[in-house]
Amino acid sequence: MPYWRLSNFYFFYFASLGAFVPYWNLYLKQLQFTPTETGLIIGTVMLTKIVAPNIWGWIADHTGKHMRIVRFGCLFAAISYAGILLGQHFFWMLVVMFLFSFFWNAALPQFEATTLSHLGDEHHQYSSIRVWGSIGFILAVVVLGYTFEHWLSVSSLPWFVLSLLIAIWLASLIVPENAARHLPLDHEPLHRILKKPQVLGLLIACFCMQASHGPYYAIYSRYMESYHYSVSMISGFWALGVIAEVGVFLTMAKLNKHFSLWQLLSFSLLIGVVRWGLIALIPTSLPLMLLAQIMHAATFGIYHATAIRLIHQHFTGRHQGKGQALYSGISFGAGGALGSIYSGLVWDNINRPTIFLISAGFAALGWFFTWKYVRPAH
């Protein structure tokens, strides 16, 4: 198993997220985009995850060339993103973000399928590889937070993101393709898999979890800034969340020995209810905001490591790429887009803490579907 080559890709991929997610809405604010425009721009990135991963997943599963799709997507994502340097008008930004995310979203689901293929029967080792993505995210958040606070303006953000996108493409070149060619072909029709209550319940629960995270990715930095937290403090919040996530990834193998996958998924959704409730109701309490960020260990770390293994169990053989694409498209795509767009649209129209109370409601709904349908029948 090419451990370091797989880890290297995750490191740079999530470092680019660490540059993009916490600071992108602050960058757009500096360009004087309204909260509504910001929500639409970020929502465009999420919306392409509904369709793009499924297109690329279908191509990858029918050609067996998962890594070729990853390399192609990474290269053209970097080329498309460079369009930001050519103009900063709202509609131009929408076009650039659409093209960038269409290619960028080709990469991760197919790389996840490649990683799980390399792991074979040792799926529990996934977290020890994926943890390097979290480390990359933390380093990007901390370094850029300090940089924007003391050295450069946040207006320099596109150059950092572009550099990391190029690094992702270079990292993809050294990951072998051969695992995709040795998958057992499972000829169960895809529509039959999707009709299973456990699969439908899982996908709906994943949609709800990411819908609850949508405002976090779209307006959390601006939300915390409105309560007079500094840029460096906000970057510290983001970093703390991912540090907690790293801790979970390092201990997932032990958790899997004591708890079933559905129990871990259910727990992560319940923690989501508490986390968003704290951010909505007591945002001025520093200790509670630190606690809320530590809860990212559950709402993303436990959730993602568990969900991706459940998806892998249901979508086997030639459906691996499509399964990971559906997971990405329905959860991070449709769910994330809904959360991002509505939070931007209602920013100036409702009491802002209500946005995160709605997030808590989505997490509670996801817990219900997990308990009702994902839980094995006794």
Write a structural description.
This protein has 378 residues and is mostly helical. The protein has one domain (3-182, 191-374): Growth Hormone, Chain: A, CATH 1.20.1250. The protein contains 15 helices and no strands. The protein has helices at 3-30, 35-63, 66-81, 90-104, 107-119, 126-150, 157-172, 190-194, 197-225, 231-258, 261-281, 286-294, 296-314, 320-346, 353-374. Helix 6 runs antiparallel to helix 10 (231-258), helix 11 (261-281) runs antiparallel to helix 12 and helix 11 runs antiparallel to helix 15. The radius of gyration is 19 Å and the shape is globular. The protein starts with a helix and ends with a helix.
- Shape annotation: globular
Looking at the overall shape, the CATH architecture is: Up-down Bundle
Mean of pLDDT: 88
Sheet-strand content, in percent, reads under 5%
Assigned CATH superfamily: MFS general substrate transporter like domains
Low-confidence stretches: 179-186
Could you state the order of secondary-structure elements as H and E?
A: HHHHHHHHHHHHHHH
Number of helices: 15
Query: What name does CATH use for the topology?
Result: Growth Hormone, Chain: A
Instruction: Give the total of beta strands.
Output: 0
Number of domains: 1
User: Distance between termini?
Assistant: 37 Å
Helical fraction: over 70%
Oligomer: single chain
What is the CA-based Rg, rounded? Answer: 19 Å
For this structure, what is the CATH class?
Mainly Alpha
